[in-house]
Each structure stands twice: as C-alpha cells, then as structure tokens.
Amino acid sequence: MSKIILITGATDGIGKITATELAKKGNHVIIHGRNEQKAKQTVAEIEQQSENAQVEYLIADLFSLSAVKQMADKFQQKYDHLDVLINNAGAVLDDTRRETDDIENTMALNVLAPFLLNQLLLPNLEKSTDGRIINMSSGTHRQAKPDMNDLNLEKETSGQKRYGISKLFVIWNSQHLAAELQKQGITNVTVNCSHPGAVGTNFGQDSDNGFINNMIYKIALHLMPAPEKGAVTNIYLASSDEVKGLTGKFFNNKKQLEKPQTKEYTPAREQQLWDYCMKVCAPFLED
To answer: Which sequence ranges are marked TM in the entry (predicted)?
Structure first.
C-alpha cells in the first residue's frame, strides 16, 4: 500500500537515497530542500531511477521556524494525511546565530526544526493508520555533555560538540513525544530515532575542527562506507512491518539498540528541554 512520506534534507546524501528507495517501493514521496533548482533536479532524478512519478518537493530554510511553519502549511493545503515523516536534515555548523529567530544555528536546524515540524504535522500523522516519525540522531550523542543553563548552545564554541549535544536532545525529545502520545492514547503514531553511522557524505567537512582535522576528515571521507548504508535504517523504519507499533526506540543498522547514552539523562532534564522547545516554538503553534 502506497504511503505519503515527507523527508527533510533530501536533495543529496542519505536523504536523497532514502527518498529514492522509498519511491521505488511505490510510495508518494515529498522531498524537502533549500534550493528550488536543486530540488527540481533531484525530483527528476528520483522519478527516473524509481520509475515513480509521485515525487514532489517543498522548499524551506529550516534555520527559520517561520519557514518551517510555512512548509507545514503548504503540505497541509495539499495533503490530508501523512504516513511517514523523516526528519533527516541536520548539520555540523561553524556559525552560531541567525538574525531571524535569534537562535543558535545548530539548535535551530537539528533540534527545533524537527520539534516544530513534528508538532505541526501531528494532526496529519494521526489520520494515518500507521503514522511514523523518524528523527535522525547520531552516535556522537554519546560524548555530549549539555549545559542545561545553555539550551540555546551559545556558550559552546565547538561545532562538533554542539552537534553531539543537539543529537542527544533529539533523542530526549523523541522519547518524550513517544511517551506523550502513549499517555494520550494515540497508538497509531510512533516516534523513533535513527543513527546512520559514519558514512561518506560531505555532511561535516565544513565544521570548525581546524585545518588539520578538516584535512583528516576529507581523507577519511573516502574510507567511510557509502551513504547507501546510512540510509538503510531510515528505509527500514519507514517501511518495515517489523517495527509497527514500536515507539520511543533508538535504531542503528536496522537493529534496535538497547539504550542511547544515559549518563547525562534525567527525567527532569528531558522535561526541561521539552518545555524550552515548546516555549520557543509556541508562537508558531498558535492558530
């Protein structure tokens, strides 16, 4: 049965491969990108490779929460329901601030954008018999040491460390949303995290590791597994009956991992993060 699937950050890398493979399965796939010309080209390539004409695109700058809201509005104007939302977009970033929302870039793109999109499109997911939210995390979350007095990540100077913290926050928010839906008796929408592993994309090559470390990264890039391996878990979580009904879990290589790192976790911290994200996103959740 064909599903309506929305994938953010899907004009290249893991997102594009995920979109292509899910289109090959006969699904209606909507890719998100920042550049319209690139998005159009990607749609044409996916349609050709998948022999599926049900591929479309949405454009949004996910650093801006107002743009996230506009993208959700455009989706809802055209579609009644959503079966799968894959929050794939994310990055390791040097610069820390956008003037639009006064939010640190890593926090805006990696944490708040998927948080807001999940909230905005939840009514559409609830109309699916098997709604699935897949949030992209990373193994780098295991080294994260968040300062809970700096949830906007303004004090942390390392882009790599900000990234790891943001991916830990993605896990906490995913766990919280999964639990909230269960409490509300919404059993037809699941929320899980996916870790792609270290794969050869251009994802982190512009991070602020210094010249030597960036050169090492570029050399290592050619030694890493192909991006196809990184897409496997997303494809699995979006399409497999094996995970139907499973929620609040963390997956890597199509396997449910026992637990993400817990040394920094407390229920109070999870709630504090959730409340912060809800407060920042509240203006965009009002009717």
So the answer is: none
Say whether 57 is catalytic: no
Does residue 174 carry a pLDDT above 60? Answer: yes
Provide the pLDDT confidence category of residue 222 given band limits of 50, 70 and 90: very low
Element (H, E) at 19: helix 13-24
pLDDT tens readout for residues 180-189 = 999 999 999 9
Domain boundaries 4-284, corresponding CATH code: 3.40.50.720
Phi then psi dihedrals of residue 18, to 5 deg: -60, -45
* Catalytic-labelled residue, pool 57, 163, 217, 276: 163
Mean pLDDT score of the chain, rounded to an integer?
89
DSSP code of 46? H
Tell me the two tokens of residue 125.
């997911």
**Cβ count near 186 (within 10 Å):** 15
Kindly state the tokens that stand for 49.
Answer: 């490779």
